[in-house]
Design brief:
The structure holds two protein chains of two kinds. In chain A, the strands form four sheets. Chain A has a six-stranded mixed sheet with strand order 7-8-9-3-10-11, with helices on both faces. The two termini of chain A are about 30 Å apart. Chain A has two domains: about 240 residues, Rossmann fold; about 140 residues, Nucleic acid-binding proteins (OB fold (Dihydrolipoamide Acetyltransferase, E2P), Beta Barrel). Helices cover about 25% and strands about 35% of the residues of chain A. Chain A contains nine helices and 22 strands. By secondary structure, chain B is mainly α. Chain B has one domain: MetI-like (MetI-like fold, Orthogonal Bundle). Chain B is about 70% helix and about 0% strand. Chain B has 23 helices and two strands. Chain B has a two-stranded antiparallel sheet. The chains are: A alpha+beta, B mainly alpha.
Chain lengths: ~375, ~575
Amino acid sequence: MNDTMREGAEGRPFIEIRDLHKNYGAFRAVKGVDLDLYPGEFVALLGPSGCGKTTILRCVAGLEPITGGEIRIAGKVVSSPGNSIASEKRGIGMVFQSYAIWPHMSVFDNVAFGLRSTGIPKSEIKDRVEGALELVQLAGLGARDATLLSGGQMQRVAVARAVAFEPQVLLFDEPLSNLDAKLRERMRFDLRELQQRLGITSLYVTHDQQEAMVVADRVALMESGKLVQMSAPRELYEKPASKFAALFIGIGNILSGTVDLATGGPVLRLDNGLEFAVGGAHEARPGSVVQGARLAAMIRPEMIEISDDAFGAENTLRATVSRTTYLGNLNDIYVDVQGQELRIQCSPPRHFEIGQTVNVRLPARSMVLLDDDADFSPEDFV
Amino acid sequence: MRHRLLPFRSTNLAWALVGGLVAIIALVPILFAVDSALRVQTPAGLGSEYTLANVESVLFSAQYTRALMRAVTLALVVTFLSTVVGVITAYLISRTDLPGKAVWDILILTPMFLSPFVGLVAWITLGSRETGMINVFLRAVFPFLGDRFALVDIWTWWGIVWVMFLTFCPFVYLFVQGPLRRMDSSLEEAARMCGASHLSTITRITIPLMRPALVATILLIFVMAVEMYTIPGMIGPSFGYITLPWKIVADATLYPIQRGNAAAAGIILLLITLVGMWLQRRLTRKAERFVTVGGKGFRSAPVKLGRLKWPALILCGAYVALAVVLPFVSLTVSSFMRFSSSTLSADIFTAIHYREIFARSDTFAGVMNSIYLSLAAGALCLSIGFLISYGDIKGGNRTARVLAVLGVLPIAVPGFVYSLGIMEMYVRTVLYGTAFVMLLAHVAKLLPYAILVPRAGLLQTSNDLEESARTTGASWFRAFRLVTIPLLKPVLVAVFFFSALNSMKELSASVLLYSPRFPLLSVQTFHATQSGDYQLGAAMSVVQTVIMLAIVVITRIVFRVRLEKGAI
């Protein structure tokens, strides 16, 4: 779903999470999160492990009582402190990280479980289970013993089971993390396609930023119990709101310095004396470019131009190549500019010698100006 | 390629010795028991000719078949009751928000470390019709009940069931609790998400998932209950209720002695337990298939008991009071009493029984012998068991692999079948009635645990740890001593003390092999109780209990090893 469609989604969000708090004893797992999911929307909760994303999912599922705030589904309060509608009455389908396929049942019985709780006639159950299995491309495997499935098949059965009883919400708890890399990549697209076809409002927990970007309409980025940014994948990558967001989603060069407006266009002066024109750069916090402000300019490695010829334009610097790594589809190059290290990704790959002098250009409009907060370094994600 | 970690050639001789020892300990007694089942019985003992008469008389006489049916019925009822209560308490303590779970856990497991026979002695002092403390107390507090009032009477069929139930309940609790704790809770959460209520999740998911573990536990308890003679043999004869195990012991020890019949009946019982054990093994293997892909181990919130909280607390409280608190109190009180009495007054209290135990040479020797024997059995079990497991798993040694199977066999063999075989083996030698014979029987009975427990530990330690020590230039022995042994230390400590503990409470083999040449505390307790001297029996039980608790406390505090974790 793109931005225009979301704006078209009328009225109230389908899932509303308001000021959600969740404590485990003294540990505060979720510290006041607000999150809206519009009807039919696919939202990914993304963040490093321990950031509280799974906790939020389990609160929505009704598997954890909440400490503060409120969760509404279709306008109805399902969770508030001391008050929780039982999981089985929420009409939510959930796919677990461990798949949670019941080993003592056949594939058919696993998928039919939710339907049998509802008192639907047998013949219809059969049709709907077969329909659900077809949906995940497991048609004809119903009689198979659940313990005899491969990991990928178990994962599909878990999805079929979650959608078979036509829930109003789907929850995914790192559903692909137990699969091998190749299968994981394919399943991302399959899950995305399935959700689009069914149009069920979905919340998806993952720590893999690529996975989040593939499956979701919007990505909710979390850090230590707080929601730090909620954007469409492209916006999150191109216009991160903080250093954390910039470096969790992809790679970024961070240039910290002080704003100088004296010489015409705005300039960011680094502590080692390097200067960059930043006029036209995106400002994460509008109005942050004032004389003397401490800011960090972030630029993605693929946005830096590199050449042995001269560019003769703004922000062009002489640099020395210090390390290059050939990765097939791109060349990963580290250069040194007066002690400032820059990482450049050049695709299609072009060859540079170590020690070679090159020109690099950092276009101002490819930069994002961020608050130079905290002692946050890219190494945190390496 | 599979590395041999043991220097193979130099240990061939050692393996032959260990193999011979295990055969003598674990196999030969059974063969002797089979042999005596097939020999002619004469008034002077077993003859040299072979016959099927013993087997026939056991299989077709009403006396034996009725005794067998009684043993089976008793075992079924006891298994059923202990399973129900054991499973409920295990679920309450491992899955719900019951307050004080850690304390309940310790209290419920405590009787496992004590002799079942001590439990019986305690309940005789507690639940006898005239002099049992429960009845005495009720009559004293509520005089209107009258002098003849009795709430409980242990000298009945239900009395047997009750004491056996208390013996086996902790085992069910222990065996069921592990799988319940390890079960991936997302399996149950998935059912909730599919619209199933709490109750229907328990009946449709939790219990079916537990089924393999449950059936295995039930079979194990049945096997232990069907071969038990101490409790039914002490209470049952008072109202003419003879079960097969007791009949076998009576045949072997009481006039008219019929060792052939005893052996034949023992072999029949052995076949029943073997089938049970075989089924149990098969199911346990199947249970391993039920292991699912691990999640991130998100511990789900414990099940809220709500209104059921008080009934649950009362259930656990009542169980602990009846299984632990009351028996201990009553045992201690009556060990200080001169005689059984239906009224309590100050002048019947005395320390004479304790003085007697420590002053009389045979009883004092019994106490010391029990300690020596249990330490020797512990050390022997530890070394043989560990050697076999190590050779089997790390050395890839064929002899060790065979021994690992052979050595586990005795788990299905009733203790008295061993004793019958060992008796025939040594009855004409000078070794008969010595500590050596007793030690053999104990090691045979305990060896299975000593093989199985280190096995689990060894499987968990990666070969790499030992191999990386060797790549730094350490010899095999040095790597073994500095890497393997320290890594496995908790397991080894558990095996040693668990074996010692079980040797201390072993009764079913010991009673038959007992001779005044080698007095033993457990058998003396049995004899004192059998002859009606319950106060001396109680005092001996207290001494035995103190020694056993000391073992548990030492392992927990000094070695930081929880014995119940290694008990399976």
